[in-house]
């Protein structure tokens, strides 16, 4: 438990993602089984002990510390587990040794509401303040230290020198303490088998085309639809819908999860029915419409009727038990085309091939994509196998060029981590009328990337020299600097005073040559809405 | 005789000793001031006559320039004030020159602790409990969650971080008066003989400490040192400089802060601190409460800090107590 407590403490104070990775990897390497497996589950909120609640901790403390002193302390510290770890009376004489993580997990799992009030104190008495904090965090499943499942998997891969794609694939279907995973990665055993389980397989991803020139004889082009990439898996009688990150979103899209009953693993774009993207023929609503359905654990009947979802299929990884990933894209495509008629047409259709004999021809087609509100085009090498991650030369994404608008820097805020001494987060605005006749700037967006380190230094100095007001970590500038801001699209939004919200805004160029009153107006930005 | 202590009163301006016509740690300029210690929330400039220990007067001279009217007080020597009041300064163990002040009038004894701690500190004499009728105490760390670990443990963690990543430096934010010098002195006691680098704002106070015979070893200025020289070394700066542009001249610093507040994780995170060091020049909860028990006054008055919790403790322990609600005292950085 001491090593886990030390890890937790170090993670609390570490901002850099790389340092967090190194800390977790180091812990995983040094810690014996099954402790490290339980710790990994705890870090990713994968543990649940129904008998231990925040109220349990409050009750335990109120039996030992004056309730007013506890309440005052809790208010100051802001965290029940931490307050309790600090206020817990040190035992007169420590009788039992510090428990290991697995010992603690076993004990916590064995507690019931009837026994927790005397069993939990026995555990707490065996730990120091940091140990008590770790135990209570582990017991209540409220780590809140910013370790995502993805980060944990990366750390696992880093710890044992295995590929993160393999970790992703074998992880699914495993439960804490993940013994088969450690047997495989740390002890060289066979990887866990995923047959007959609806497991996630890592996605194949594309590189941006940028200046690369490809021969269209070797590549096929498809539209790049603006939805969310999903994997639909049916195995062992169960269906799952997975997002790009491998999260199970079946509950959010039940109409998709219930529409596949043939064993298969399919790759496609999840969209909502509409005419926004590609008109009647395109048949898909905007990303904004899809967003209304994202992030919901349950979905109402009204929403299912108003915004029905479907999947536009790009690829097939497995069909009826046969793994197609080693096959060429062309072969997979043919098998997918033959498979599609067996699926519910309400829920599945096929991503069409865009015929183009040269990149120039494709460029003209791609330009039209903006009118059709499509994100761009994809290029897939006809002989490419389906490999996890981004592999150079196989798949490219060729997005339409970004939209541009000139905005004025209004506020700047300090960044975090390495950037904590720099004003690196910028809020910018457009004019709500003619600036020469008293128009005002209204904020339209915020960006913290798109500039080089040199430019950041310059911007930081600029902000400090042009500050007219300070509000905590935020500085208001004299509104004299123009940014050319690039963004993918713009939408109506009630959240901002300007009524607009940009998607993926970034600083494209610093236009120190341009006077602020020549920056764009809100109406210019509004005219770019394609909703 | 019914004690009423009406000759001493808490006013928004500070603690007033009416018959003597003087104030303790007044926040505005007054004619006659008694100053417990040199921190700026207690020692303000501009008083006509200032009674304080010699080091405190030196600190005030350093901070506010030339000050006329300084009256040095010696620990343990009783001084007659006006109106039949006497004052005696005793060590408070807080910083160099810090004092508690015992005031006596009409057979009543009142001790104003100022800020104090009970741990040993190589830079100042230790706190002495003084029997009294009224103990006027601080409560900066007046919550039972505050427990300052032994300073040796914190120094060991600091030196451990330094050796673990020798290509970086450890930048410690520490209050420029007291904390910084105590930290350096403790590092020296732990056998750390390497040069310690200072932010420019630290230098004069460190030199003053040395003039009072406190050896701080090899101190150098960051401004005089090339970046590469700082790797593997300790740099001390005021807390306000921790995330300042100034830090860009340091080799990938590990940000540390020496403060009692570092006991609470979110407080450390708010300041972007990677290495929180729980080092305080104030009494922690255990010391505050045991000092009250030890001195055993008829009444306890609480000047500033988390007074609600300390009042509650007094109530639970059947002790008369009240909060003075003085404005203007708080060590956010301590």
Structure notes:
The complex is a heterodimer of chains A (531) and B (334). With 531 residues, chain A is of the alpha+beta class. In chain A, strands 14, 15, 16, 17, 18, 19 and 22 form a seven-stranded antiparallel sheet that branches. In chain A, strands 4, 5, 6, 7, 8 and 9 form a six-stranded mixed sheet that branches. In chain A, helix 10 packs across helix 11. The longest helix of chain A has 14 residues, at 17-30. With 334 residues, chain B is an alpha/beta fold. At the A-B interface, helix 1, helix 5 and helix 6 of A face helix 6 and helix 8 of B.
* H/E series of chain B: EEEEEHEEEEEEHEHEHEHEEHEHEHE
Rg of chain B over CA atoms, rounded to whole Å, is 20 Å
Instruction: List how many beta strands of chain A DSSP finds.
Output: 22
Q: Biggest interface between protein chains, with counts per chain?
A: A-B, 25 and 26 residues
Number of strands of chain B: 19
Largest sheet of chain A: 7 strands, antiparallel
* Spatial shape of chain B: globular
Short structural description:
The complex is a heterodimer of chains A (531) and B (334). Chain A has 531 residues and is α+β, with helices and mostly antiparallel strands.
Features:
heterodimer; A: 531 residues; alpha+beta; seven-stranded antiparallel sheet; six-stranded mixed sheet; 20 helices; 22 strands; 34% helix; B: 334 residues; alpha/beta; seven-stranded mixed sheet
Task: Give the SSE layout.
The complex is a heterodimer of chains A (531) and B (334).
Chain A: H1 2-13, H2 17-30, H3 35-43, H4 54-62, H5 67-77, H6 80-87, H7 101-109, H8 116-124, H9 129-140, H10 149-160, H11 164-171, H12 179-187, E1 204-205, E2 207-208, E3 219-224, E4 228-235, E5 238-243, H13 254-257, E6 264-277, H14 279-282, H15 287-291, H16 301-306, E7 309-319, E8 322-323, H17 329-339, E9 348-350, E10 353-354, H18 359-371, E11 376-381, E12 389-390, E13 395-399, E14 403-414, E15 423-431, E16 441-447, H19 453-465, E17 467-471, E18 474-477, E19 482-487, E20 489-492, E21 500-503, E22 506-511, H20 522-526
Parallel strand pairs in A: 1-12, 2-13, 7-9
Antiparallel strand pairs in A: 3-10, 3-11, 4-5, 4-6, 6-7, 7-8, 11-13, 14-15, 14-18, 14-19, 15-16, 17-18, 19-22, 20-21
Helix pairs in contact in A: 1-2, 1-9, 2-10, 4-6, 5-6, 6-9, 10-11
Chain B: E1 8-11, E2 14-17, E3 22-24, E4 32-34, E5 49-53, H1 54-64, E6 70-73, E7 78-80, E8 86-91, E9 99-105, E10 108-112, E11 134-139, H2 151-164, E12 170-173, H3 179-189, E13 196-198, H4 203-211, E14 219-221, H5 227-230, E15 234-237, E16 254-258, H6 265-270, E17 275-277, H7 285-295, E18 299-305, H8 307-316, E19 320-323
Parallel strand pairs in B: 3-4, 4-5, 5-6, 10-11, 11-18, 12-15, 12-16, 13-14, 13-15, 16-17, 18-19
Antiparallel strand pairs in B: 1-2, 2-3, 7-8, 8-9, 9-10
């Amino acid at each position: 438990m001491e090593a886990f407590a030390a890890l937790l403490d170090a993670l609390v104070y570490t901002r850099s993602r790389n340092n967090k990775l190194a800390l977790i990897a180091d812990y995983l390497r040094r810690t014996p089984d099954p402790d490290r497996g339980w710790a990994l589950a705890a870090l990713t909120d994968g543990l649940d002990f129904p008998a231990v609640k925040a109220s349990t901790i409050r009750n335990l403390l109120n039996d030992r510390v004056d309730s007013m002193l506890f309440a005052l302390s809790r208010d100051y510290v802001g965290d029940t587990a931490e307050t309790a770890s600090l206020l817990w009376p040190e035992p007169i004489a420590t009788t039992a040794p510090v428990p290991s993580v697995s010992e603690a997990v076993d004990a916590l799992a064995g507690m019931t509401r009837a026994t927790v009030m005397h069993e939990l104190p026995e555990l707490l008495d065996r730990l120091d303040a940091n140990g008590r904090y770790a135990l209570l965090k582990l017991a209540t499943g409220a780590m809140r230290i910013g370790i995502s499942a993805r980060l944990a998997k990366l750390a696992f891969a880093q710890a044992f020198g295995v590929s993160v794609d393999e970790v992703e694939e074998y992880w699914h279907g495993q439960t804490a303490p993940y013994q088969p995973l450690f047997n495989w990665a740390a002890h060289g055993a066979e990887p866990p088998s995923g047959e007959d389980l609806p497991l996630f397989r890592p996605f194949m991803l594309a590189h941006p085309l940028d200046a690369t020139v490809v021969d269209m004889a070797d590549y096929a082009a498809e539209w790049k639809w603006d939805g969310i990439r999903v994997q639909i898996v049916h195995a062992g009688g169960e269906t799952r819908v997975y997002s790009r990150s491998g999260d199970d979103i079946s509950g959010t899209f039940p109409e998709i999860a219930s529409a596949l009953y043939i064993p298969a693993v399919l790759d496609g774009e999840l969209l909502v029915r509409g005419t926004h993207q590609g008109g009647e023929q395109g048949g898909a609503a905007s990303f904004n419409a899809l967003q209304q359905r994202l992030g919901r654990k349950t979905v109402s009947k009204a929403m299912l009727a108003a915004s029905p979802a479907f999947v536009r299929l790009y690829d097939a990884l497995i069909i009826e038990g046969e793994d197609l990933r080693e096959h060429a894209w062309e072969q997979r495509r043919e098998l997918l085309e033959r498979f599609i008629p067996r699926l519910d047409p309400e829920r599945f259709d096929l991503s069409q091939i865009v015929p183009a004999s040269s990149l120039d021809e494709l460029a003209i087609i791609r330009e039209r994509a903006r009118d059709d509100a499509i994100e761009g085009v994809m290029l897939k090498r006809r002989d490419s196998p389906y490999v996890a991650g981004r592999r150079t030369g196989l798949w490219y994404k060729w997005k339409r060029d970004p939209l541009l608008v000139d905005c004025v820097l209004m506020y700047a805020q300090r960044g975090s981590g390495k950037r904590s001494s720099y004003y690196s987060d910028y809020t910018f605005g457009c004019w709500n009328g003619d600036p020469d006749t008293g128009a005002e700037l209204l904020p339209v967006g915020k960006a913290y990337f798109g500039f080089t380190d040199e430019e950041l230094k310059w911007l930081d100095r600029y902000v400090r020299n042009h500050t007219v007001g300070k509000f905590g970590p935020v500085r208001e500038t004299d509104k004299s600097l123009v940014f050319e801001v690039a963004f993918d699209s713009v939408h109506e939004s009630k959240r901002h005073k300007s009524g607009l919200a940009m998607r993926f805004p970034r600083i494209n160029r610093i236009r120190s040559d341009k006077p602020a009153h020549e920056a764009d107006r809100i109406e210019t930005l509004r005219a770019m809405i394609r909703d | 005789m019914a004690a009423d202590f009406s000759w001493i009163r808490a006013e928004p301006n500070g603690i007033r000793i009416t018959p003597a016509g003087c104030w303790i740690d007044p926040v505005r300029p007054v004619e006659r001031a008694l100053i417990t210690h040199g921190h700026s929330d207690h020692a303000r400039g501009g008083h006509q006559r200032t009674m304080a220990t010699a080091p405190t007067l030196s600190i005030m001279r350093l901070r506010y320039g030339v000050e006329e009217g300084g009256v040095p007080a010696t620990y343990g020597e009783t001084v007659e004030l006006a109106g039949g009041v006497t004052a005696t300064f005793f060590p408070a163990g807080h910083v160099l020159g810090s004092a508690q002040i015992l005031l006596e009038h009409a057979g009543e004894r009142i001790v104003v602790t100022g800020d104090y701690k009970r741990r040993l500190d190589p830079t100042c004499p230790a706190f002495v409990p003084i029997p009294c009728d009224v103990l006027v105490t601080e409560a900066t760390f007046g919550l039972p969650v505050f427990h300052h670990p032994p300073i040796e443990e914190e120094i060991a963690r600091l030196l451990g971080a330094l050796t673990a990543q020798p290509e970086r430096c450890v930048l410690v934010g520490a209050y420029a008066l007291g904390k910084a010098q105590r930290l350096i002195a403790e590092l020296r006691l732990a056998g750390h003989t390497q040069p310690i680098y200072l932010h420019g704002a630290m230098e004069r106070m460190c030199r003053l400490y040395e003039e009072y015979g406190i050896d701080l070893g090899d101190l150098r200025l960051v401004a005089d040192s090339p970046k590469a020289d700082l790797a593997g070394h300790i740099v001390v700066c005021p807390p306000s400089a921790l995330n300042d542009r100034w830090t860009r001249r340091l080799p990938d610093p590990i940000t540390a802060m020496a403060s009692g507040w570092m006991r609470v994780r979110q407080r450390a995170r708010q300041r972007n601190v990677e290495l929180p060091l729980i080092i305080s020049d104030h009494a922690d909860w255990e010391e505050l409460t045991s000092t009250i028990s030890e001195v055993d006054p008829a009444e306890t008055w609480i000047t500033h800090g988390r007074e609600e919790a300390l009042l509650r403790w007094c109530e639970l322990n059947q002790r008369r107590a009240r909060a003075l609600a003085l404005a203007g005292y708080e060590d956010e950085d301590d």
